[in-house]
Amino acid sequence: MKNINSKRVFRRNDAEVNPDGSYVLYWMQIHRRLEYNFALEYAVAWANKLGKPLLIYEGLICDYPWACDRIHRFMMQGMAAHHQGLKERKVNYYPYLEDKPGAGRGLIQSLAGNACCVISDEFPVFIIREHNEALSGKLKVPFVTVDANGMIPLGLTESDPYSAYIFRQTMQKNFLDSWNHPPLEKPLNGLKNRDVVELSAGHLEKWPHAGNALGNIDSFMKKLNLKEVGTLEINGTREAALARMDAFMKNDLSKYGEERNHPDSDRASRLSPWLHFGKISEYEIVKAALERQPSGWDPGSITFNKGQREGFFNGDASIDAFLDEVITWRGVGYHFCHHRADFDKYSSLPAWALKTLDEHRGDERKHIYSYEQLENAETGDEIWNAAQRQLRREGIIHNYLRMLWGKKVLEWTPDPETALEYLIELNNQYAIDGRDPNSYSGIFWIFGRFDRAWGPERPIYGKVRYMTSDSTRKKLNLTGYLKTFG
Predict the structure, then answer these.
(1) For residues 293 and 249, is the Cβ–Cβ distance under 8 A?
(2) Is the full-model pTM beyond 0.85?
(3) Looking at the domain that runs over 238-339, which CATH code has it been given?
(4) How far is CA 75 from CA 39, 124, 341, 438, in A?
(5) Using an 8 Å Cβ cutoff, are 230 and 70 in contact?
(6) CA dist 101 to 53, 89, 207, 332, 425, Å?
(7) Per CATH, is 346-485 categorized as 1.10.579.10?
(8) Contact present, 44 and 191 (Cβ < 8 Å)
């Protein structure tokens, strides 16, 4: 445990370890990987300290917010890979799949009843945050959540960072320490007690082991009454994540700085789906990028440039730009949500944004579109429709067009509160990387979070940053993109 920064560890209750427990329980909620995972590493350390076997529990309910075929299949693909891989490695793994809403209620408490302690994942949004808060007072053994989200531990910041510039200063001060204390690549290799954990017949009768269902995902999903938004070609396994990372590093990283904004070039990493579900860690992405520096990279070469975006890593400009997106912009969203329970509320916007949007809420809107029209890409804007179609088909939107996509919804709805509601719903339903701190960063940036007041003051937007489809068309190479999604 000495390798893990204490700022990553959150003790959720004051219960004492149960020395008579049969195992240490690791509840894998969102850090759904077996490599470079501080939470799993922490659970292994506790198992070794107590001389107990480890039980990894990974579950999937069927009535989570925005539940649909797209998300469910992606998650089940990852669980199936874990089931096969851990069986071969002789590690105790218990997967569970709900077949109807509420069927899994009480399962984690049942598992905890036979555990020495319970370790799980720290995550600042979605049902993971709710689960951790609700479970804290219900367990009679220690409940600890561990942050394996990013390079900079969530506990290092004392309040929500109100800009990327502010968070970048924190990142620069703490990057070397985080770099020098990385997660173990294969924490399960150090597990000492490999005894088989046998769950009771009564437990398994009520909550069956999901091995058979994971072997036939199509058949199991037909039994569920999930919303159908369309499954994706990409696969939810770690193997797929590593393949995508390798392709990006080899083919796109060197041109990322100049071409990332152009949809036709498609230089984005597209790693966010696997990052969101924890199939790949931020650390190994950063490591892979730094290893691509043309002349190598020396940790002693970094420049503490007081929060400036360029020059900290002193390397290739494209690599530096990518690292700023991965570490700073991803991190600022996670740390903001960690400190703010109202991260998804309109009232959480900065005061200047609330004021200017309120002053312009009565401005005339030339077009008002219903949620259904937006959902079905039925606007008069060719570029916006293309971005929405990409979201529906591929579960992502090109990074630059995502900004325009959000700005136009602010312009096309009766008031900013409605715009926010629509954007959250569209994103979290269709984006495979949605329901994430980065989702809320991108959506709330549309309304002024992590931004500043801009001039000149405009109708509807007030002093909030303004974007148009005409200017976007002039700036970007879109011909191929519009042909694909037009």
Answers:
(1) no
(2) yes
(3) 1.25.40.80
(4) 19, 19, 26, 19
(5) yes
(6) 31, 32, 13, 34, 21
(7) yes
(8) yes
117 phi/psi in degrees, rounded to 5: -160, 165
**Distance (Å, whole) CA 396 – CA 441:** 15
Q: Which CATH code, of 3.40.50.620, 3.40.50.720, 3.10.450.50, 3.40.50.150, is assigned to 1-148? A: 3.40.50.620
Mean per-residue pLDDT of the chain: 96
Residues of the chain with CATH 1.10.579.10: 346-485
**Which residue spans of the chain are classified as CATH 3.40.50.620?**
1-148
- CA dist 440 and 433 (Å) reads 11
Amino acid at position 133, single letter? E
Residue 217 CA to residue 209 CA, distance in Å, equals 14
Q: Per-residue pLDDT tens for 323-379?
A: 999 999 999 999 999 999 999 999 999 999 999 999 999 999 999 999 999 999 999
What number of other Cβ atoms are within 10 A of residue 131's Cβ? Answer: 18
Under DSSP, the state recorded for 265 is T
- Calculate mean pLDDT across residues 225-247: 97
* Strands 23-27 and 115-121, sheet pairing: parallel
- Report the SS3 class of residue 41: helix
Which pairs count as long-range contacts for 106-113, CB under 8 Å and 24+ apart, including other chains? Answer: 107/59, 107/207, 108/27, 108/57, 108/59, 108/135, 109/135, 109/138, 109/139, 110/203, 110/207, 111/25, 111/27, 111/55, 111/57, 111/199, 111/203, 112/25, 112/139, 112/140, 112/141, 112/143, 113/140
Contact present, 482 and 386 (Cβ < 8 Å): yes
Are 360 and 419 within 8 A, CB to CB? no
Beta bridge partners of 23: 115
Q: Tokens 């759904």 sit at which residue? A: 32
Our CA dihedral for 86, 95, 280, 3, rounded to 10 degrees, sits at -70
- The neighbour count for residue 427, using CB atoms within 10 Å, is 23
Q: Are strands 92-97 and 115-121 parallel, antiparallel or unpaired?
A: unpaired
- Quote the CA–CA distance of 104 and 411 in Å, as a whole number: 42
Chain position carrying tokens 């503490």: 304
